[in-house]
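ZP: hey, is the 5-O-phosphono-beta-D-ribofuranosylamine complex queued? I don't see it on the tracker
AM: it wasn't, my bad. submitting now with these inputs:
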Amino acid sequence: MRVVVLISGRGSNLQAILEAVAAGTLPVMVAGVISNNPGARGLAHARDAGIPVAVIDHHDYARRDDFEAALMQAIDAWAPGLVVLAGFMRILGPGFIRRYHGRLMNIHPSLLPALPGLRTHERALEERHREHGATVHFVVDQVDGGPVIAQVRVPVQPDDTAASLEARVLAEEHRLYPRVIRWFAEGRLSLHAGTVMLDGAPVAQVQR
Ligand code: GRF
């Protein structure tokens, strides 16, 4: 299965995906990586792995529709079966989301529906959550609101800072995202009428 990964910054999830592919544990081909940010550090991970990159800078487009049209054109040129958002920091419009319905996923650093949006680690501490984590979800037209595929839970420690909590969550993200992408590539995972199906059953009922 061909996969296109969209990033905006550091690209550590992209790097985890590339490492899993290189290790033979993730049976996909990363056909291309796209960043909306020309300075994204993650672009170097793609280049180092010999993967084609495209920069589509949203500043170059007056209207969001035009930016997204360029984005869709670049994605479709790589004919992916799956589009993976990995720290992609632009909100995507309904036309984009409709086009990739059921084959567009995102990773978010919280236990959704708790803590959508930004600064999740700081907010988990401010709000004294005892548990934090990360979520992989299909993207539907609702920010951080799509149907959940899988979550990983991380206990909050009394001495945690936002940085220490982020580091532990991020390490889990790097295990979770390649695993979920593998399910999809193996044909085990799909979105049917708003319900996430894994191995033929609604995902909430699957024990992992
Ligand atoms: C991750 O925490 C991810 O959950 C969120 O943005 C961050 C991206 O980090 N969507 P990286 O660019 O993959 O290192």
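AM: back. The helical segments are 12-23, 43-48, 64-77, 94-99, 120-126, 162-185.
ZP: great, adding it to the tracker
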